[in-house]
Amino acid sequence: MENLKVSQEEKTEEKYGASIGTWFSLGIVLAVITATNLLLFWLYMARV
Amino acid sequence: MGTTLKQSWKEKADQALGASPEDATLSKTYLFVSFITLLIGGVLGLIQGLNRAGILELPSWLNYYQVLTAHGILLILVFTALFTIGYFYAVLSHNLGGLLPKARKMAWIGFGLKVIGLIFVIVPIIMNEASVMFTFYPPLAAHPVFYFGLVLLVVGVWMCAFGAFIQVANWRKKNKGQHVPILSYFATGVFVLLFFSSIPVAIEVFMIIPWAIGWVETINVMLSRTLFWAFGHTLVNIWYLTAVSAWYVVVPKIIGGRRFSDTLTRVVIILLVILNIPGGFHHQIIDPGIAESVKFLHVFMSLAIGFPSLMTAYAMFAVFEKTARKKGGKGLFRWFNKLPWGDVRFLAPMVAMIAFIPGGAGGIAQSTNQLNQVAHNTLWVVGHFHLTLGTTAALTFFGISYWLVPYLSKRVLTPAINRLGVIQTIFWSAGMIFMAGAMHWVGLLGSPRRTSYTTYFDNATALSWDPYLIFLAVGGTLLMIGVLIQVYAVIHLMFFAPKGETEFPIAEEEDNASKTPYWTERWGMIIVIMLLVIAMGYVIPLVEMIVNAPPGSPPFRPW
Fold first, then answer.
1. ipTM
2. Whole-prediction pTM value?
């Protein structure tokens, strides 16, 4: 059981490369930027 | 030969034993006054927040705009400037083998000028003669003494900038062909920006003084505002660059990692220096009388700053992930658990970085003409700079203080003070979520900034803002607790913590790091490009504003 857990973790490590967390975190940054722009754009269009 | 060897031993001894007592005293003085300013400015901020929320009525001898002006000037201009100068002079001393007597003297003269200038600025505010807010541009007119104080503040900053330039130039002369150590490189960038951005504001103040005294009847408001924002916009990025210096160099060391590419770090500094000043017009994006093409250019320049910021975001996440994975971190997100969340020297700047995600996003949105119209002159803007300055810059400064102050005082950060620092960071973060969050939202609902509490004769829209303003007050109270803890921690670390040696944390480069190209050291070329970019952004609009000047404005004192 313990061995299985270890091999699963190794597999996960292979699946997520060393910089996948970095790109995912940057994705969150870009999502926040996009969401902020969309919120203000929606308010702008609603008030024009 | 003998002198060089002696010098080299002195440099090594200084680096091993910490800052020389004279250099340490200089930086500690700057930091001490900086945090006292934070305390006073924080108290004023709490009073202002409670009053703005309609909870606290001010006594007849004190009005909202006095408090607003003093809070802004103390925290935005004085706290940040004193901290930045104290921090970077400690950097120059540590990195470059101790301060030259001339540089140290100039920093002390600069300190004296700034203190006298601050007194000149504050006294008219206390006397209710200068409620012109921290932006102080016409047509609001303060007592002339207020502007004399501003002149002294600017000259004080120039003294420190030239002291730093002399220090760096001296090191470069003795170390030909070598790269200036990275933190001193940051210091150079910051002082270049401080010097060049304070030139337009100095011109503005010299325009205002004869007008405030009454020697001239009117003033060109548009020109004054433009000169102010060339400085004001850059000031934001001076705080940012100061914070970023710790993110790139100090934080990796604290988490047990290596620094990201040295070349990329230096390119980020160069880009922030070159692209910065011409972004000023995005603060005037709704102003009449400025051509659309000029606004477009400045919006482009403002958004260009986002490029090095995204490079920084990538670099930071990459350092965190690489370090955490080396420590056994796994999965898509679980590696975050390997970061030292219980260490305030990491936690505070990390929260600062996280806050910069919505802070930067808000900045990008505000720089866009149409989107700016949704948030312009509302409390959204106040919320925005409480996220950027109040959280991103301030929390990084707090994080720096937990190693810099004990390093300078030859004391150590105890587990108890570290725990207190973690609690302080939690209070600060919670306070900002409440306060800046409420400000952003109520701003979108139309609540104006730079306006004391009013219901506009019980107007329904204005009354709908009240619940959010209560959150603002709650946040302000939590932040005040954060200020008290922070000031206590700094004083404890400066005077009462156990004696011992504290390391100045500077992360090494990766073993296989590529060589940084030497063109990054050509500051003459960088400054010429910066001046060309400034000329591109400002010559045509300034000539236009002077040649086709609108009718001037007399002084206004509505308070």
1. 0.78
2. 0.92
